[in-house]
Amino acid sequence: MAEIFNSMQILTDMAQVSEHELDVLVGEFHHSVESVVADESLFNSMILRLKEINPYFKPEYYSDFKEANILANVVAGIYAPLIHGFSKTILENISQGYLPKIIIAPPRDTIPLVSSLKAMAEFGEQKLTIIKPPITRKTAGIANNQLSGIAQEDPLFDLLLDQTFGQHCQKGNLLELEAGIYSTTSLKVAGKLKAKGVNQYTALKFYGLGPNLSYVHGLLSGGKEWVAEQAEMESLVDSNLIANLMILLDSLEEFGMQNVHQSVGKLQLTPEGWVEPVILPVEDKFLEIARATNTAIKQTAVKYLAIDTESLSTLLLNSFGKIVALSKTGYPFTLTRPIPPMDNKEEHFSLIRQLKLLDYPRLIL
Asked: To the nearest whole percent, how much of the chain has pLDDT over 70?
C-alpha cells in the first residue's frame, strides 16, 4: 500500500523522534520566541518577514505580555489565513447544502477553528449550531501510545452522548470538525451516534491522511479530490509537500490557542444529573497566550472575508518550505521538522474503510 499512502510512507520512514529529541525540537522553537522577546530589532525583522510571507498581514498589539503578543502576530500572519480559508470553505459548502448546519467541535484543538468559524458566520449572518462536547481520546477510551496506562472509556461517556445529541440524532446529519489527522475519536463517535439514529456523519479535517476528508488535499488538488489517499493515489497533490505539511499541524500546538484549560481526562455528574467535563486550569501565562492568539484569529476574520483566501492559502501551503527555512534561522514561525507518527495507522485506516461509518459528501472550494 506504500504507493497509495505516499505521505504516510514518507512520514513513517522518518527516523523516530526520541523523547529527548522532541524536547530539543520544541525547546528550539521556544528559544526563538525568547530571542524575539529580548531583542526589539529581531521583533521588527520578524514583522518584515511576516509581511513578505503574507502581503495582507498587518501587525497588531494583542497583549502586554510580550511572548503572547509575538505568538499572536505570527498566528495572524501565517496561521489565521489558513484557518479562515478553511472556515470560508465550510460555510460555502453549508450554504450550498453539501454540509449540515449542526457542527460538532470538541475542544481543545478546535478552539481556534471555532473562533474563526463563528466570527465569519456572524459577519455573513449565517446561522449555525456548534456543539462542543468534551470528547477526547481519554474520555472516549481510545488508546494513545503517547500516554501510559490502559485506555478505558469514561463510565459517563454514553450518557454524555445521549444528553448532548439526543435532540439532534433524529435530524439526520452532523458535521464534525476535529483537528486530529486520523479520525480515531471520529470513528468511535460516528458508530455510537449512527446507532442512535444519525443518518450522515461527516468528519472534515483541516489536514487529514488516509481515507479522511482533508481540506489541505482539497485545496491543493484544486477541489478535484478531498479524500486524502485518493488525491495522492491520483497524483493530484505532491505527497512530499503533504508529508512536510505535518510540520504545520505539529507547530500549531506550540502557539497555545487550545490552552484555555487542560485536556479533559474525566467526566462528572452535576447535582442535577448532567454530565460535564472535569476542567483543570492552566497557568496564567498560558491562558493569556490562548486569549491573545484567539483574539488574533477573531480580529482578522473580517479582513479575510473579502480576500481570495483560496489563492492565499494555496500560496502559503506551497511556500511552507520557505517558512520552515526561516524558522531554522531563528524566527518563531514553525517547528523545524515534522514529528513522525508514533505508530502505523494502516490498521485504523482499514477499519474506517471496512465499517463505512464516515460519510463523504461532494464538496466545493
From this structure: 94
